[in-house]
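Re: weekly structure request thread

Next one in the queue (71 aa):
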Amino acid sequence: MEKSVQFSVPWREATRIVKRIKTSKLRYFVRQKEGKTSVAFVFPRVSVSQYVYLYIIFGPRAADVLNNDSK
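Done, posted below.
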């Protein structure tokens, strides 16, 4: 089962995160809500193993499941 998830981090951590996920070749895009000091990394259709990898990179932050994309 694949789902889209997003992780929010402060801007000061965004560069570190980008360097780590570049090597994984996962598809993602970055979104910032107006007036916020954080940025959200959105990962479309990740598998369970990819989610675990992302959870390790982003640390104990809670991820938001965006939709229920089943394949």
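The two ends are 6 Å apart (CA to CA). The first strand starts at residue 3 and ends at 10.
Next request, please.
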